[in-house]
Amino acid sequence: MSDEIFRIVVIDDSRSVLTLLARLIQTVNDCEPIPFTDPLQALEWCAREEADLVIVDYIMPVMNGLNFITAFRALPDRGEIPIVMVTGSDVQNVRYMALQEGATDFLNKPIDNVEFVTRLKNLLIMRQHFKETRKRAEILRQAKEEVDRAFGELRITHAELEKTRDSLAEAFAVIEESILYASNIQRSLLPNPVTLHQLFADHFIYWDPRDTVGGDIYWCRPWGDGMLFALGDCTGHGVPGAFMTLIVTGAFDRACSEIPPGELGRLLARTHQLVQMTLKQNSDQGESDDGMELGICLISGEQTRILYAGARFSLFVCPAGGTPYEVKGDKKGIGYRRVPFAQEFAQVEVAVSPDTCYYMSSDGLIDQVGSEVRRGFGKVRLLDLIGRIADQPMDEQKIIIHKQLQEHQGTESRRDDVSVVGFRLRLEPPCHPPGGTSAEA
Fold first, then answer.
1. Which CATH number belongs to the domain containing residue 177 in this structure?
2. What does the pLDDT read at residue 242?
3. Is 295 found in the same domain as 341?
4. Cβ partners under 8 Å of residue 288, min gap 6
5. Lowest mean pLDDT: which of 2-11, 28-37, 81-90, 157-166?
6. pLDDT, averaged across the chain
7. What is the DSSP string of 334-378?
8. Is there a contact between 401 and 342 (Cβ–Cβ < 8 Å)?
9. pLDDT at residue 49 greater than cutoff 50
10. Residues 251 and 322 in one domain
11. Where residue 121 falls among pLDDT bands split at 50, 70, 90?
């Protein structure tokens, strides 16, 4: 995972549990367990030393897990260290309180060894990315201080200007390198193209971030006996939008593991809650008001059924030889502060038939203003375009949609990330009995 050693603080008043967790931690490369049976001693150690991950039991004498998390988060520079609370309690209110105090994740007793090791590795990957980002931020901070000092001097020599220029060049190089690296991380979240080719009879993905990284994301993953195919549009674009895609992806993955397969509306609702809690937008503590719009299809294993749910997102359907129409989602987004924590989302069943085309689009296409008409591309224009090109192969449709957007945009600058997806299911037309149809007879 890394050349450095990750120090894992484990607090549990049961020595047998403490020994088990320490042994599991030692099975992960570059990890050192720091065990404590006394939470107060652990807190003193954490005030002196920097841990990479804290695992704390909920029920303990002297100080329970909730109190420990509160005291730990109050320590200077300890706000970004992941904390996992181990609990045998199934009371949801306890978990909500732990999240509000600063818990990152939970583990249930009795400990599942495989789940424990897997979650440990995932949290340490996040921790490693954070530490690398912090190092880069320190380089940028130092570069900025050099620039501030240079411009603060009344008499600055040519040699000092050259040095400042080199420092700025280095700073911009670091920024560019970081953004390119972030682009690799974001693209690693996208589905394997092989998975999409196996799922659909034909499809296209038009994913075009405005900058190197962006706020649009799409997923494809198994869920129960079916497959989920989703397209999301997070707040903003560029680096802020990309950060939101990472947050939402984590929330979406966790919601998939918590909600029973098939309950698509509940899946959106749980994703909304997890994003709100992560950004502290369900309380007065958070300062942001960010989230996403999302459309998601659940395709049954036999591809005879599609369930759809949307958060300010639509599914566009074009039956073979028919008129395209819009299946609208709910009018509330995911994660935003103004959306109630208990927000519910509806799921609808969409008609399935051979050669029907299905589309989803972020508002980067729909809201793009044209240089001549000074109006957005719009849903009416998109539905009309779909109706004219739906009988063509999906790769050709992607080219046409891109061309239509460019012609509409003209000399106007791009305003947002653009993402459009289209697909046909692997359905065969119904076979007619020998001798033709009754009309032919």
1. 3.40.50.2300
2. 81
3. yes
4. 279, 281, 337
5. 157-166
6. 87
7. BS-TTS-TT-----EEE---TT-EEEEE-HHHHTPBPTTT-SB--
8. no
9. yes
10. yes
11. confident
Per-residue confidence (pLDDT) for residue 123, from 0 to 100: 86
Question: Cα–chain-centroid distance for residue 226?
Answer: 21
Integer-rounded Cα radius of gyration of the chain: 26
- Tokens encoding 19: 């020994």
* Stated length of the chain: 441
Check whether 310 has a pLDDT greater than 60.
yes
CATH classification of the domain holding 416: 3.60.40.10
Residue among 310, 291, 416 at smallest CA distance from 364? 416
According to DSSP H, which parts of 232-340 are helical?
238-258, 264-278
HSE, side-chain direction, 13 A CA sphere, residue 200: 26
Q: Which residues, 6+ apart, have CB-to-CB distance to 36 below 8 Å?
A: 9, 10, 11, 18, 42, 45
Question: How far is the C-alpha of 200 from the C-alpha of 306, rounded, in Å?
Answer: 13
Sheet holding 306-311, edge to edge: 216-223, 226-234, 292-299, 306-311, 348-350
- Amino acid, single-letter form, for residue 69: I
Kindly state the tokens that stand for 270.
Answer: 């749980």
Tokens of 156: 């600055």
User: Domain residues for 333?
Assistant: 190-424
* Distance (Å, whole) CA 247 – CA 252: 9
